[in-house]
Amino acid sequence: MKARLFTTLFVMIALTGCMQMKSIDFMDAKPRFVLEEFFDGQTQASGIFEDRFGNLRREFVVEIKGVWDGETLLLNEDFFYSDGEREQRIWTIEKIDDHTYQGRADDIIGVATGESYGNVLNWRYYMDLKLDDSTIRVHFDDWMYLQPSGVMLNRAKVSKWGIELGTVTLAFTKK
Q1: What is the spatial distance between Cα 77 and Cα 126, in angstroms, rounded to a whole number?
Q2: Containing structural domain, residue 19
Q3: Angle at 161 between CA 171 and CA 23, to 5 degrees
Q4: How far apart are CA 7 and CA 131, in angstroms?
Q5: CA 44 to CA 172: how far, in whole Å?
Q6: Beta partners for residue 116, in sequence order
Q7: pLDDT in tens, 111-140
Q8: What is the DSSP track for 71-118?
Q9: 132: left (phi > 0), else alpha (psi -120 to 50), else beta?
Q10: Mean pLDDT, rounded, for 91-118
Q11: Sign of CA dihedral 126, 157, 98, 40
Q12: Per-residue pLDDT tens for 36-53?
C-alpha cells in the first residue's frame, strides 16, 4: 500500500514538473497586452539580474524609444547599469499575426519568437551575452505580464545547456 502511494505521488510530481506554462493559458486575462501599442513611444524600465542562487548581481535602468509603423516595431533600448556600464540594443520586431511576433537584434542569434495571449507575451531567444572580454551564448525564456495599473512586469530565465544561470526581473512604465 505504501509503495503504491509513493509511486502515485512520484508520478504526479514528475508529470507536474514536465508541464510548462504556455502563453495561451492567459487567453482571457485582462488587460490585453499588445506589444506594439505598449512600446510605441517612450518607456522606461528598472531591472535586476539575480544568479541562480538568488544573489543580486546587477541593477540597471533601460530607456526605450519605440516606433510602430503599422507592420514593424523598432525599439531602441539604452541600458544604464549601476556599475557605470552602458549598452544599446536595437530590436526590429514584426507582427506575424494576432498572437505571434518575430524579433531581431545584433546580439540575438537568429530570430526571437514571441507568442501573446491576454495580458502575457512569452519571448524565447538565444543571445550572445558579454562577460568581461568574451561572450557566452545563453537562452532567454522571457515572460511579460501587463498589470491593470499599466505597469508591465517582465521575468526572464537565463540558461545555458538547460542549466539555469539566473533571472532578469524588470518593471516597465510608460513615460
Answers
A1: 18
A2: 2-174
A3: 45
A4: 45
A5: 6
A6: 121
A7: 999 999 999 999 999 999 887 788 899 999
A8: SEEEEEEEEEETTS-EEEEEEEEEE-SSSEEEEE-TTEEEEEEEEEET
A9: left
A10: 96
A11: negative
A12: 999 999 999 999 999 999
Other Cβ atoms less than 10 A from the Cβ of 140: the count is 17
Q: Read off the CATH number of the domain in which 29 is found.
A: 2.40.128.20
Helix (H, G, I), strand (E, B) or coil at 125: strand
Domain count, the chain: 1
Which helix (H) or strand (E) is 120 found in, with range? strand 120-131
Contact 47, 60 (CB under 8 A): yes
What does the block give as the cell for 142?
522571457
pLDDT at 111: 97
DSSP letters spanning 31-66:
S---HHHHSSEEEEEEEEEEETTS-EEEEEEEEEEE
* Neighbour count for residue 149 (Cβ, 10 Å): 8
For residues 11-22, average pLDDT: 57
143-172 mean pLDDT: 96
Cβ neighbours around 68 below 10 Å, total: 19
The reported pTM is 0.84
Confidence of residue 9 (pLDDT cuts 50, 70, 90): very low
C-alpha cell at 100: 505571434
